[in-house]
Design brief:
The structure is a homodimer.
Chain A lengths: L1 E10 L6 H12 L5 E15 L3 H16 L5 E9 L1
Antiparallel strand pairs in A: 1-2, 1-3
């Protein structure tokens, strides 16, 4: 079966996020001062051919650990949907 | 009130995503060939001070249009949660 995985990778809360800070300041300069604590990460979608949802999750998790996510600085979450 | 916005920004379906393609090939080289059609975008979280959820959504939408999203190449979706 074919599954779609939605993966969100964010910088760890304990770490500074310079990109988010720069965007935060840009927004304030543009007058949107009600917005704060901007943090920027990655969103990845991919298709997985697997026998069941559990196997799809295992494959997505393996991809995160091996390629997509740098676990020293980032955390990830995976959501799997059947197609 | 304080709201949290989760914003997902993805490259438009019609466009090539070279970063996603490179990751796709890396995964195949590592033996994870059940994964395909990798597309990579951004995930942004931010805090919004607003009177209600509708106003929070309007502010997040303004931030997307003015700073976060390049609508020539990307599309965005916004999800607002009360805190």
């Amino acid at each position: 079966m074919n599954y779609t995985a939605q993966i969100t990778i964010m910088p760890l809360k304990e770490l500074l996020d310079p990109q988010g800070k720069a965007v935060n300041e840009s927004l304030h300069r543009l007058g949107i001062s009600a917005i704060d604590q901007v943090r920027i990460g990655k969103h990845i979608t991919l298709q997985i051919e697997a026998s069941d949802e559990k196997q799809a999750h295992t494959l997505a998790d393996e991809a995160c650990r091996k390629v997509l996510c740098n676990q020293v600085m980032e955390s990830y979450s995976i959501s799997i949907n059947a197609q």
